[in-house]
User: Fold this.
Amino acid sequence: MWWHQHNLCFRHPIEEDYSSEDLEEKVATIAETDESAESEGVIDSHKRREILSRRPSYRKILNELSSDVPGVSKIEEEKSEEEGTPPNIATMAVPTSIYQTSTGQYIAIAQGGAIQISNPGSDGVQGLQALTMTNSGAPPPGATIVQYAAPSADGTQQFFVPGSQVVVQDKETELAPRHMAAATGDMPTYQIRAPTTALPQGVVMAASPGSLHSPQQLAEEATRKRELRLMKNREAAKECRRRKKEYVKCLESRVAVLEVQNKKLIEELETLKDICSPKTD
DNA sequence: CGCTGTGGGCGTCACACGTC
DNA sequence: GACGTGTGACGCCCACAGCG
Assistant:
């Protein structure tokens, strides 16, 4: 099933993203899998926005498409898994991100917010350590706190983990070893370092939510939560754009296939016409 | 060489939707 | 209902090409 709100999409004058709507329209026109009910009529911008925002995710769309059309590749649930996750992490519950440290350890951030660290040499999931991110609500007793810091002046991002170590994001992905770049795509690389002198701006060290009393602490907690949310949203936006590009590529290939099919059918029709209605003169 | 238009990427905000 | 996630919209920046 092809969703049919494409003709309700509107483009902002300075729209900068590629016009997937145009492609979708082209595909829908060629394939004629669609009703044209909504192609007419005036819909106010609010309504259009409402409809637009209910559009299914690219992943859903593409996966539906792939089930209808053989040969259309699916968007995997997690790119990091499909592109060569280290074997000892492969059995873990779907991580959202996997990083490799300069010491060769793998850090997997699971969807629940748990961080797992594994050594490349260890078998299976042995050696994994599960940490709990502080954004996942009140940590259970004895939980390990991992602190996130806003990007510092040199463009790096840091996680503060127990044991006086800091997980620092490299400035550029290409700094990662080639084997890592192949395994993670555009995924940033992280290193475990000893912490520098003072905490970077925006860092609030471990304070369990229950122990927050003063307005200053509350404000710091709010700031920390905001930074965390922004970081997650940043990553989500990147991932969303990646999926969108993949989706557009898929549409382009589908257009090509359907155009070829269409051409063949037209030729076939012409042939049949010639056979059924020979010229009389 | 400076200006301008264009395209692509990124970060952020707002909002809908799904989950617990 | 709170919270997390996905995505459209917007604004900004940068690179590049074309032009005078």
Observations:
- Chain A has six helices and eight strands.
- Residues 1-21, 30-54, 75-210 of chain A have pLDDT under 50 and may be disordered.
